[in-house]
Amino acid sequence: MDPVLSVRDLSVDLTLPGRERTILDGIGFDVAPREIVGVVGASGAGKTVLSRAVVNWITAPLAIRSGSVSFRGKDLLGLPPRAMRRLRRDIAYVGADPMGALDPTLPVGRQIVEKLRAVMPEVSRQEARERVIALLDAVRIPSAHARFHDYPSQFSGGMMQRALIVDAMVSNPALLVADNVTQPLDVTVAAQVIRLMRELTERFETAILFVSSSLPVAREAASRTLVIDAGRLVEEQPTEALIAAPRHAYTRDLVAQIPVIWGTGPTMPAAPKTPTPKPPAPADAIVSLRGVSQTYRVKKRGSFAGTSELRAVRNVTFDIVKGDSFAVVGESGCGKSTLMRLLSRLERPSAGSVLCEGRDIADLSGSELLGFRRKLQLVLQDPFNSLPPRTGIGAMLEAPLRTHGWRDPKKIRERVRAVMDDVGLPVALYDDLPLGLSAGQRQRVNVARAMVLEPEILLMDETLSALDQTEQFKLLALFDKLQRTHGLTYIYISHDLAMVRKACNRIAVMYLGEVVELADNERLFFDPGHPYTRALLSAMPALEARRYRPEDCLMEGEPPSPIDLPQGCAFRSRCPQAFEACATLPPLLTVRGARDLAACHRVPGAGAALLAGAA
Amino acid sequence: MDAVESSLALAPPRVDVAASRSVGRRILAHAARSGGFRIGAAGLALLVLAAALYPELSGIDPTKMDIRARLLPPLFLGDKWSWAHPLGTDQIGRDMLVRCLVGLRYSLLIGVASVAVTVVIGCALGTVAGYFGGRTDTVIMRITDAQLSIPMIILAIAVLGADRPTIPAIILVLGLSNWPVYARVMRSVVMAERGREYVRAAQVSGATHPRIILTLLVPLLVPPLLFTSVLDVARMMIFESTLGFLGLGVQPPTPTFGSIIADGRKYLLNAWWIATMPGVFLCLTLTSINLIGAAFERARNTIHGGA
Amino acid sequence: MFVLSFLARRLAQGAVIIFLVSLLIFTLLRVMSGNPVRQMVGGMAPDSLVEQIATQMGLRDPIIVQFGRYAAGVVQGDLGRSFVRPANGAATGGANFDDLTRGARAGVGDLILDALPMTLQLAGLALAIALVFSALLGIAAGLRPGGVFDRLAFAVSSVFISIPNFWLGIVLALLLSVKLGWLPAIGYGGFSYTVLPALVLAVELSPVLIRTLSSAVAAQMSEAYVAVGHVRGLSRPRIVAAHALRNASVPLLNLLGVQFSSLLGGVIIVEYIFDYPGLGLLTINAVLQRDFPLIQGIAIVTSAIFVLINILVDLAATTIDPRLEY
């Protein structure tokens, strides 16, 4: 069969004065009709440039040096704009930024109709409309008729990505270029989108070039995978063969760095800590949450002075034991960031209390509050936003000390040097600005700023999520070392289950503001008690054989809004195991074994608790 | 992230504020490369130099009358011009050039000083409103709305019309008339910055609100604003000349652009230069300042990625 | 429904603004200003008479009492009576102090209503000229940043913003009216008298419009949806006309709302220069004559117009961009 796309000897240069370099170097490959071909590489490897070259979207300062991109035997790169525009019907593109891809001021449906009629003028307005609604329905956008008239800002990221897939597929293209489409999405939503794309290739006979920075994600979608490193195509194999027997050294590293979740092989750098032998007595608890809730009042759309309640965190209770590496995991909107703000006393809870060594931190003020601040420090998420601009690294690290009453410049300097050494920052950087630092080094500055006060608890707010796999490795090793030498307690707030598997001993899973499961590491990954945890595990991109299949664990759809919480169990709308009781009664956290808890009516013994609660 | 990849990503590249060595210096360097800035800077330097030196060096008193030399036209225009009065004389024989240059001194002084007043008040109130939000914000924003709804010229003439206006009174009135604009801008940038993570980090390390405002936010956010305030110096100078024109500016015999133009208006038909020359001077000065200010503004927008 | 609750909220806010404005002006005038009665009765009148009239008019009561009395009148639609102007005919300033009775003086509301249409005509024409001119130049500049039109727009706005309106008025009157005789300049005797003042105002307004439009268009053209639009198969004219300009009009609308008071400030000066019988001329005369009730009335009316214009602007902006919530 003739390939639908064939790329030959494609080279692209950056022509920015003073920064000239080669981005893509002699790339060549074919895509057959109906085939899904994966393209994998690190950020900066040139994947995005490749996907743009394929749709003939190379603009200054990039320039094509050589090569061809042939679609059905016709080279696209030399085509005049008008001819290229006619081909847009057959070559579609979906990018990584669903929210920016459409005009924010016009309804989504109308814009898809506009695109359809631009590439297929023979379609009547009415026909186009019907086709778009039918497709919105086909990608399982609920009540497609009504959503047709909604604006982009009224779509969630996952819904918008589906709408853009509709936009791409509406003209029935022969080739779809999908550039990192799942990157901004939560894992459970990403899994649904990938499933959808596979279905669509079968239905519309479309070939897909599936570009992704994650090999496990590409594996979900693609039957054949290309690996790109520094602008060169280093390997091309059927996906399973590539994972089983990578030939190129870069691919071997890539495969080796993917964290192992279930198998316990030598690839795992730090084995999960064994659970503490004895069950915790409350006396060990360094931080305790007691029925903590946080409710925000948000303005009700279009009302005179009405507000609605957004219940971001609901009735959360758990203890964190000294020396723990405790994780709070969940997807966007689950309330974990609010929980972070409550734990660090950036906000006070609307109900319940956060205790630190038995004291309610909401009551602290003055020097007591300062004392608490010294004890608990925050390491932030974004390596670029979290450092104050225009401040030297040393000065940045001195600031907390000065806040806490240190006055002697010599002692301050000494302490800052010590902490820089501790986190592996060269002391020579003392007077430098964070200008040239890599993301990993910036995160080290963040850690140092938290460590400089010698805290006992570090709150890690998605600290590693902006880093590459390799950098994550190094920082996790550093955290491990710091924990051993300083006796620290860690609280990780994260969406990344693989990282949590590696670094934490105890894990709380949050869904819609509630803790739905609280368990030790091994138990959570091997014997989860809550269907949501199983859904998360099933959707996690991995290279191993899965213990849980998304088809069994996850229904279509997205979490309900925290403003209109459903009655009964919050997860019920997406739970494949829901039954009548779930619709009416909210499940309580029920003990499973010695010290693990899950909030599900299916947990053995939950019925008893339910009865006890009713009595 | 790799620089190339990020600059190509669909989303506009995120501004790495932390990477800015000194925002002020970068704006200056960026602006200095534009042709408009160079023309403006050269023009302004020339005018300021002339205003500073010429009146004393020439030894001509701007208020000295000379009936024999009244209504002389500028050089080469008309038939009885004189080298002693390059821009001619007015209805009572005062030298136009010296009068314009002295007017320029007052105009610049009042313009700069009133902008300083504006910036201080506007930034202070805007910072407080943006940082603390809630009721404080509502109250301050209602007051700015109220003031923005009355043309400042009405306020100014209502106040200055009371007495013979003094220079400090003029500066104060002009300064008070424009602060809501600064308050609004400052409020929005402070609001955006307050949500940034490094502010949160400072808070968690125990820093108090005044400390965060004074050590983190003000040094970061005010300097870029100062660059655009150059444009307001020009606006205030126009405003000052308007007041002078209405007879509410610095009082005679001190010459100001506005009062000279107002006087010259009566002689428009037979001595057009009296009303036109100060205007030309004022326009040249303002164009220079505006070229500089616009170059600053463009530089700031490029560096901050719009907004 | 949404629109109604929006209107209710904004009108309530507007009432607060108008209240604050009138309080501010009222206090300012009472505290800072000279003696209006002296101006009313003229320099020759004896002090005792001045004092007597002042007490009669309630000018010796505490400010808060005076304000309460005034506000009560305003709520009932009575803006008071001019200190200076007689009900019939021109403002004379009142050298004749004995026949100056309350009934003979003109109502503030009537004075404003007479002048307002003239000013609306002037402001409307000025705005139309400025918008057409700025749109042509600003959009062309924004579509090609760094191009010829961008430079031209930059130069034009830099020069225009540097010209004081009163001086431009004088120079244009000298050139176009006196020397060339193309347009009438002073006073009002038909629509042609509006053109010259409107031109001066348009020159004053356009620099900000040009710059806002060009930077808004340029910003929209660098948005992701524009680049993606090409890849989706939309033509450039379609992207520009149907999407970029639509989005760029929102900042322009907001600007118009904010610029209202500077437009009015310009109107005052320009009407004074051209002796154009509108609200501006009325204002400046009222201020120069210390005619407190008239100044207050004008301030209230203008701030009410400001509030209304801003509500309209926000309504329009929300219709274009639904993300801007009501």
Automatic annotation (TrEMBL), chain A:
The keyword rRNA-binding does not apply. Keywords: ATP-binding, Nucleotide-binding, Transport. GO terms for cellular component: plasma membrane. CDD domains: ABC_NikE_OppD_transporters. One of its GO terms (molecular function) is ATP binding. It is found in: Cell inner membrane. It is a peripheral membrane protein. Its main location: membrane. One of its GO terms (biological process) is transmembrane transport. Residues 7-255, 293-537 form the ABC transporter domain. NCBIfam families: oligo_HPY (TIGR01727), PRK11308.1 (NF008453). Belongs to the ABC transporter superfamily. This is Peptide/nickel transport system ATP-binding protein. It comes from Methylorubrum thiocyanatum. The lineage of its organism: Bacteria, Pseudomonadati, Pseudomonadota, Alphaproteobacteria, Hyphomicrobiales.
TrEMBL record, chain B:
Keywords: Cell membrane, Membrane, Peptide transport, Protein transport, Transmembrane, Transmembrane helix, Transport. Residues 104-293 form the ABC transmembrane type-1 domain. GO terms for biological process: peptide transport; protein transport; transmembrane transport. The chain crosses the membrane at residues 35-54, 106-132, 139-160, 166-185, 212-231, 272-296. It is a multi-pass membrane protein. CDD domains: TM_PBP2 (cd06261). GO terms for cellular component: plasma membrane. It is found in: Cell membrane. InterPro entries: BP-dependent_transpt_permease (IPR050366), MetI-like (IPR000515), MetI-like_sf (IPR035906). Belongs to the binding-protein-dependent transport system permease family. PANTHER family: D,D-DIPEPTIDE TRANSPORT SYSTEM PERMEASE PROTEIN DDPC-RELATED (PTHR43386:SF1), OLIGOPEPTIDE TRANSPORT SYSTEM PERMEASE PROTEIN APPC (PTHR43386). This is Peptide/nickel transport system permease protein. It comes from Methylorubrum thiocyanatum.
UniProtKB/TrEMBL annotation, chain C:
It comes from the Bacteria. It holds the Pfam family BPD_transp_1_N. One of its GO terms (biological process) is transmembrane transport. Keywords: Cell membrane, Membrane, Transmembrane, Transmembrane helix, Transport. The keyword Cytoplasm does not apply. It is found in: Cell membrane. Residues 116-317 form the ABC transmembrane type-1 domain. It is a multi-pass membrane protein. GO terms for cellular component: plasma membrane. The chain crosses the membrane at residues 12-32, 120-140, 152-176, 182-203, 252-274, 294-313. The keyword Transmembrane helix applies. SUPFAM superfamilies: MetI-like. InterPro entries: BPD_transp_1_N, MetI-like, MetI-like_sf. Belongs to the binding-protein-dependent transport system permease family. This is Peptide/nickel transport system permease protein. It comes from Methylorubrum thiocyanatum. The lineage of its organism: Bacteria, Pseudomonadati, Pseudomonadota, Alphaproteobacteria, Hyphomicrobiales.
